[in-house]
Specification:
Blueprint: H1 5-14, H2 16-39
Amino acid sequence: MKFNGLALHKKLEENSGLLIFGILFVSSIGGLVQVLPSLFQ
């Protein structure tokens, strides 16, 4: 199975709800990566 990044990009551009969900998902992972180490110290 070949990964087609352009098809995914086009789908995200056409569906703004999916784009907003992807932005929130990626930024929440980034926030967790920053916060979790300080919680476990």
